Amino acid sequence: MLAGLAALGGCSNSIITGVYGTPTEAESSSTPSTPSAPTRVDFDPDAECPVINVPNGASFYTSGGAQMTISKFARECDLSGPASVTIKIGIKGLAILKQGGAGTYSAPLRITIRDRDEHTAYTKVLRVAASVPPGEDQGSFEVVDTSTPIVIGVQQPLNSYDIQIGFDNKGALEPPTKKKHRR
């Protein structure tokens, strides 16, 4: 996979040529030129891939007689063009029975990528499901999502983005509230 990315960047070593950072030696020649495209520079997807954050209260979701929880997550950034990166996000979790028995439990899981100004660059809600077999008290789920290309550049480097994952409680049914009657 890195060989394919290196071919995209036009380099033969393990550093992938990207669109921000320190210009390569070939680009820092003494002859000034007017670039028609973004200046290409070194890009290290492992070091500069944004971190994943799970907001408070978004790591679990109650679904029927089970509680869905996020247990592990990871991300991988791949250069997908001269000024864009595709981020692959993997999430694993569990459905732990609180009561009841075997069955399939599901929950809405949201993935959001935002820039430093908190503008959403990508968001998606996935429905994850975990089956709990008879006689067991938990089941697991796993999902991998690949974002649309995220635009990066000198003013908007990849590490200025933020990845948030968590169960989306916006669609959850709230218990009805009692209305107060005036007398």
From TrEMBL:
Record protein name field: DUF4232 domain-containing protein
Spans annotated as Disordered: 23-42
Organism: Labrys monachus
Domain of life: Bacteria
Composition skew (Low complexity), residue ranges: 23-39
